[in-house]
Amino acid sequence: MTSTKTKQHKRIAIIGAGPGGLTLALILQRHGISSVIYEREQHDKSHERGGSLDIHEDSGQLAIKEAGLFEAFQRLARYEGEDFRLFDKTGKIYMDEIVEQDSMGERPEIDRGELCDLLLSKLDPAQIKYDYTLDHAVTLENGLTELHFKNGFVETADLVIGADGAFSRVRPLLSDVDVEYAGLTMFELNVLDAARRYPDLSAFNRRGKVFALDDHKGILAQLNGDGRIKVYVSLKVDRDWLETSGISCDDPKAAKSSMLELLTDWGEQLHKYIHYADDTVLPRRIYMLPVGFRWKRNPSVTLIGDAAHVMSPFAGEGVNLAMQDAMELALAIVRNDDVSVAIQEYEDKMYVYSSEKARVSYDNLVLCFSQEAAPKLAELMSSYHE
Ligand SMILES: Cc1cc2nc3c(=O)[nH]c(=O)nc-3n(C[C@H](O)[C@H](O)[C@H](O)COP(=O)(O)OP(=O)(O)OC[C@H]3O[C@@H](n4cnc5c(N)ncnc54)[C@H](O)[C@@H]3O)c2cc1C
């Protein structure tokens, strides 16, 4: 049974204030439809909100335009962040792309935290509740959904949108399928204030991204807006490798020594990404939903972003798809009085474009951690430019 309230009076609950949830709430707000976002983090935990993300012209940027923030975005975006260099372990270079001065490329960079702040700057603060971690959700007989939060509060909503990332607590309402390990484990490192403290590495890294790939391993580095170079030392290993390897991130110095041993025959310049990193090491396993994942349709619950189709970061699509989903769903809600029709329109469209990107992302992951990965990736990327 679904509620007969008009959409302006329906209680719309969005779980998660990442780029997806915020974009959705903001576009709805611009059309006079209010919603409430429930976010697990505290409001003030804004300093560690992720690295640099490239925002694509045909998806993320369209959503930003729909949210009315494109000019403000252009002022913050780092167009020069599209610089890209590709090496093998010896330091042999396969690609060296430099964005021309003042050029406005298609995929400028912005830090995840800055992007969230931009979206928050226009969102009515009454529409977001912090420190609300969804524990579980229950569909009631009257068609409403009951939301149980870890802080003890219970709320009900006519429409629930899971924008709560890879480990979504809304997804179990729709499917038994869970994320699976994508075969890749990373150590996240940060070289802080790189230009001032380590000009040699800063000159090598330039203004954007560096990939060094070889022997089923990788060093992936990217300059962020706050001057740090974020580095991911990436290994194709079994899921339990972190435990069995004996490497503990609680002892960052020892962990960094172990990384250097694992990459002992890699070039001196590449080692600097580890030598110069500060003493915080974060382990990250990469998870994905099956390519082409779909769920059983529910007239009052749906998913957007990583909750709907988390994939490895090797197509650079995570944030772009999340924002595109948000735009498509918001506009479908605006167009239709019946939210179940809006959900159907959105899901039918989203399944098509997201499964294509999930396939590319998975294929890129396999390629980047195969033998001779650097020349293979260079060949693939040059085919895009032909
Ligand atoms: C802290 C963080 C850092 C990241 N850093 C990078 C990066 O450097 N590079 C990159 O490519 N991608 C990064 N990502 C992933 C990237 O942001 C996503 O792929 C993309 O933005 C998809 O957006 P989303 O809104 O669907 O999900 P997310 O960005 O994952 O946002 C989900 C939101 O939901 C909240 N949430 C989760 N569970 C619950 C719950 N149970 N109850 C309430 N709220 C909940 C989270 O706190 C978060 O705010 C990061 C994600 C996070 C959460």
Automatic annotation (TrEMBL):
Q: Which cofactor does it need?
A: FAD
Q: What's an example of a GO molecular-function annotation for this chain?
A: FAD binding
- Compartment list: Cytoplasm
Q: Which InterPro entries match?
A: FAD-bd (IPR002938), FAD/NAD-bd_sf (IPR036188), TetX_monooxygenase (IPR043683)
**What's the main place this protein lives?**
cytoplasm
Residue stretches spanning the membrane? 12-28
* Stretches of the chain forming a coiled coil according to its record: none
- Could you tell me what reaction this enzyme catalyses? a tetracycline + NADPH + O2 + H(+) = an 11a-hydroxytetracycline + NADP(+) + H2O
Q: Which Pfam families match?
A: FAD_binding_3 (PF01494)
Indicate which residues the UniProt annotation says bind FAD: D54, R112, D306
Keyword terms of this UniProt record:
Cytoplasm, FAD, Flavoprotein, Membrane, Monooxygenase, NADP, Nucleotide-binding, Oxidoreductase, Transmembrane, Transmembrane helix
Q: What this chain does, per the record?
A: An FAD-requiring monooxygenase active on some tetracycline antibiotic derivatives, which leads to their inactivation. Hydroxylates carbon 11a of tetracycline and some analogs.
Q: Which family does it belong to?
A: Belongs to the aromatic-ring hydroxylase family. TetX subfamily.
What is the protein name for this chain? Flavin-dependent monooxygenase
Species name for this entry?
Answer: Brevibacillus nitrificans
- Please name the taxonomic classification of the source: Bacteria, Bacillati, Bacillota, Bacilli, Bacillales
